[in-house]
């Protein structure tokens, strides 16, 4: 009896060792995303987009003759977990490059780990300015920081006849950073900035904040948060009879999901977004966009997720291109190669430019920003 | 002024559901003396039952509510029979650890079954709100307030006016005497836990459609429920109801007039004050300590 029991761990060990050898045949990319918690919906979409990129690359023969393997970990929408996940991916899974970590506060928590282990990370979603200005040379961001969003929005504020705006933002680096960058731009344009209200990332009832904003003399509210909270805000604003114009930022709105869940309450709202899955012909790379959307639909995912998932797709293709260019799956070589790549992203060419203090610059690409409007449950494009 | 009125209306609606959460927990935590960490997951469970019954089984919204309450009752009874009954008489730390384990296991179970992406329940109520002069409120929230008020009254009557309620109070005051008087103590333990659990499920079933449903939704709800119970005094149903409204008022006015960033902190500031100045809760009867 005893002997049989001893056999079990031996076999387990053998399997683990053999498995280990099999793993060396693949090239790994670590994926650090929120799959549970406040940002679960968005993180899951990004991961699904990442899987499409990995499958596409593997179908074409992989990278450097090896299969690409995504090691996906859940950071639970929690900065502490995000840092722990990064450490686990780098030290235990030995990934040479990461993609993550969706939210600005999550990414900022991961950044010291990248310095410690000298491993680069492609940042696919986060928009806080701090990420690329604090001097972390392992950061390569493909999403627009809120200052780029604000600059793109600057062109249309006259047409929208903004006079006085209030803010309602998520109480973290993303929301507060957006309020800061947009306020600065508004003031330059002579627009008065009124109240700046915040909400906790897990808050479900924003009635108190919205009641306050209902009583101010501003005509527009800029709202920054992810889709689940946005849906609740539109419903609660409608229930309070709040009739001001609402413009959202951050590109994590999943407008189709808002239309489906908030119904008529979504009409008249405007959204700054970074991808146009509704109008593939108007995107910078129509062919790739059409392929991605067709693949997304084929896998039975919700179309609403496209505006989020394309970032996972672009992020993985960026990391893979850098590995290919580097010629080996080593962190230092990949970091150097990231500066030399040019990837045809779904939202424009991904080319990294230097950002932040000299000598330890982060990489930042310049994606496009679009403004869309929901009218009668349909999405229309506004020219910026 | 109209802004203040709107805050008061919001407070009434929010307070009703906080009260419902509070009385469920005060029964279990206050009367049974079990630090019930599964309260939040029962709230989550009630909300998911609504989602399943309305969207996957296609049952009417109003029929789904009692089903969710019944499901919460059954799950509560199951927890008491399998986890708490074998532990009766053991110290509070052991029970607490087991309940933390049950909470984590059930939350992971919810995540495994339904995934982390939030779900929403459609309701038969119109989207346009009820407008009363300068204030407006959604029909769904008015319904939730009415349903919560009804459940609170029913629970109050059950505990204070029925034979079962009398037996419950007797059991948790003095188990041996109650047993000698012919009270089936085992049955009372199970039913008290089941009633408290069904109230948590009811709160989840009512609030799930107002907000969105996800596996961790009960965490914040449970923290607030504990806060309300401490505020109102352990085992005090009237105290829990008033405590619910006080917490809602503090959050509304705190967010409206102080800073929305500290909305959730407001309630806890009040609790710290209560614990300093009136440690047995605002509405606890004076007890002999020595």
What's the quick description here?
Chain A contains 13 helices and 16 strands. With 384 residues, chain A is an alpha/beta fold.
Q: Your description of this structure?
A:
The complex is a heterodimer of chains A (384) and B (290). Chain A is built from 13 helices and 16 strands. With 384 residues, chain A is of the alpha/beta class. In chain A, the strands form three sheets. A seven-stranded mixed β-sheet of chain A has the order 2-1-3-4-5-14-13, with helices on both faces. In chain A, strand 3, helix 4 and strand 4 form a beta-alpha-beta unit. In chain A, helix 9 (227-239) packs parallel to helix 10 (255-262). The radius of gyration of chain A is 22 Å and the shape is globular. Chain B starts with a helix and ends in a 13-residue tail after the last helix. The longest helix of chain B is centred in the N-terminal third of the chain and has 30 residues, at 2-31. With 290 residues, chain B is mainly α. Chain B has a two-stranded antiparallel sheet with strand order 1-2. Chain B has one domain: ABC transporter involved in vitamin B12 uptake, BtuC (Orthogonal Bundle). In chain B, helix 2 packs across helix 8. The mean pLDDT of chain B is 89. Helix content of chain B is 73%, strand content 2%. In chain B, strand 1 and strand 2 form a beta hairpin. Chains A and B meet through helix 2, strand 7, helix 8 and helix 9 of A and helix 1 and helix 10 of B.
